[in-house]
């Protein structure tokens, strides 16, 4: 049990009690690490509007709050702690708001794959929230997967062994080789079709992924794009825009 202490505030002292928040004393420009606010975005099948889960979108990412001195500060959350907190809060919010669409996808911090404690933190989070790992799909940024090279899929499998579904976030790049093992590992890929050419994403990569049953989820598209996207093997979208 935490004992409340009455402190006398002085110019040299600042006191903060919020979870995962820390104000650095005598550093007026130091950022405050806060919990992200969440909102749910539905994922639908473009052919008929059938629900295909939902995404828990955070207004800030772990990377947005990170500073080099955080590496040596035990009071600030690690990538594993951030991911665990995000999973728990998303699961609890889904229950509180009766948001039942599944899978519930969550974007993992880029550093999560490099943090060996992350799979355990994720597993503990769903247990605290009274949820099931099978309800959650963790999406890993393509850049973080590529950075670990041969170790990447082993790290991703550590989450799968705990029951989580996994996806690839290819909205900013898609350099991850989609060999046989990768195609069996990732069940979904998020991408922005309008940027595929600029990002030099080969159409063959998209076609092969779709042919192997990977759900390609488009962002920044309209309902009227459904037929054109289907020709590319893209059958799902996150909150497609109304035609107009």
Describe the overall structure:
This protein has eight helices and eight strands. The chain is 29% helix and 17% strand. With 244 residues, the chain is α/β, with parallel strands linked by helices. Strands 1-2-3-4-5-6-7-8 form an eight-stranded mixed β-barrel, surrounded by four helices. It has a single domain, classed as EAL domain (TIM Barrel), CATH 3.20.20.
Features:
17% strand, alpha/beta, single chain
Quick take:
The protein is of the alpha/beta class.
Spell out the CATH superfamily: EAL domain
Question: What do the pLDDT scores average to?
Answer: 86
Strand content: 15-25%
Structural class: alpha/beta
Distance between the termini: 57 Å
Any idea what the shape is?
globular
Task: Determine the fraction of residues in helical runs and give it as a percent range.
Answer: 25-40%
Rg of Cα set:
20 Å
- The count of domains is 1
Q: Going across the major beta sheet, what is the strand order?
A: 1-2-3-4-5-6-7-8
Element-by-element helix/strand order: EEHHEHEHHEHEHEHE
Uncertain segments are 1-32
* Largest sheet composition: 8 strands, mixed, barrel
Query: What do we call the CATH topology?
Result: TIM Barrel
Q: Would you identify the CATH architecture? A: Alpha-Beta Barrel
